[in-house]
Design goal:
Elements lengths: L2 H9 L17 E3 L4 E9 L10 H17 L5 E10 L6 H18 L2 E9 L4 E9 L14 E5 L4 H9 L7 H12 L17 E4 L4 H8 L5 E6 L7 H10 L15 E5 L4 H11 L3 E9 L5 E3 L5 E2 L11
Parallel strand pairs: 3-4, 8-11
Antiparallel strand pairs: 1-2, 2-5, 3-5, 6-9, 6-10, 7-9, 8-10, 11-12
Helix pairs in contact: 2-3, 4-5
């Protein structure tokens, strides 16, 4: 059973009458009256991060991916709570010092504050992060309009390349190794766009489970489809280098998840202001496709104009 099916079957009814739950079909809880936004994420060793050999980096990955849920909604994260389950092997004195130091760095970088949490003894290492922000409004899912342009910030695929390098599937130079490992552990969170998103985005979310799967979630309650252009989907110069070096394909990397870039749609009339904001903030924002009618199936078009199939649509949460 998929996560969405599990939620719909067992939990959606429990949220009826609670507008802030957004029918359990968004990334956050939004209490409009109290201007309160909350997100909760859990990370398990071996699933959401490889291992705990570098606790100082794992904790950065966890914090950044958690606050990303609010950032893509146009909300400034303010407070966070962290709960951890583990044992004396993972929570050694040395590891705890590294975690504390990294959290201090992330707090300073993103102006967020630790407010509490919990610890539990367990054989399995995991973390749960609750993030809180305050805003009069957010950018919802499922608010795309027919003929909207589809955009994504930054580059896609670097984190997945980093995962493969960490798993020793690709042998590369030390420079490439460092670049991709940094992208895996330290995703770039586009804080400069937080308030600016309201100027152009009709709907928005972060790319956590993969471009295709997340785009489907972005539209899941709407009778809409999408057309993407493979050539326009942004990847870094280093990923292009890796693809050539290892004779790989671009479409293998673009929808693997863990990118934490912002995926949004906007009316075509907003293209000029989007370009202007991209230039002023120094953030790469790429138009990658179009929202289409449900009379047509969603499709991805290659540089030759041919429809292609991407086997890996993203990370599916199965139970």
């Amino acid at each position: 059973m998929l996560e969405s099916q599990l939620i719909n079957k067992y939990f959606s009814k429990l949220s009826k009458g609670n507008k802030g739950s957004l029918n359990l079909n968004d990334d956050v809880f939004f209490d409009r009256k109290n201007k309160l936004i909350v997100s909760v994420d859990t990370y398990v060793e071996g699933i959401h991060f490889i291992n705990f050999k570098k606790p100082e980096l794992v904790i950065k990955k966890i914090i950044r991916s958690s606050i990303s849920d609010l950032v893509c909604k146009g909300v400034q994260p303010k407070y966070y709570f962290i709960s951890g389950s583990g044992n004396h092997k993972s929570f050694t004195s040395a590891n705890l010092k590294k975690i504390s130091k990294s959290l201090k760095q992330e707090q300073k970088k993103y102006n967020i504050y630790l407010c509490g949490g919990d610890t539990v003894h367990s054989k399995k290492l995991s973390f749960t992060i609750t993030t809180i922000g305050f805003s009069k409004k957010i950018i919802f899912r499922n608010k795309a309009k027919l003929k909207d342009d589809i955009y994504v910030t930054g580059n896609l695929g670097d984190s997945f390349a980093g995962l493969n390098i960490l798993n020793k599937r690709y042998k590369v130079s030390n420079n490439l190794k460092k670049y991709f490992e940094d992208k895996y552990y330290k995703p770039v969170i586009n804080f400069k766009l937080i308030k600016k998103l309201f100027l152009f985005a009709n709907t928005s979310m972060d790319v956590s489970d993969g471009l295709i799967f997340d785009l489907e979630k972005l539209l899941n309650s709407q009778r809409l489809t999408f057309k993407l252009y493979l050539e326009d989907i942004p990847i870094s110069k280093n990923l292009k280098k890796l693809i050539l070096l290892k004779k790989l394909k671009k479409n293998f990397f673009i929808s693997q998840g863990d990118d934490y870039q912002i995926l949004f749609t906007a009316n075509s009339s907003k293209s000029r202001i989007i370009s202007k904001i991209a230039k002023s903030t120094g953030i790469r924002i790429s138009k990658i496709g179009k929202i289409t009618s449900s009379n047509h199936k969603s499709q991805i078009i290659d540089q030759k104009g041919k429809k292609i199939t991407i086997k890996e649509r993203g990370y599916l949460h199965k139970f």
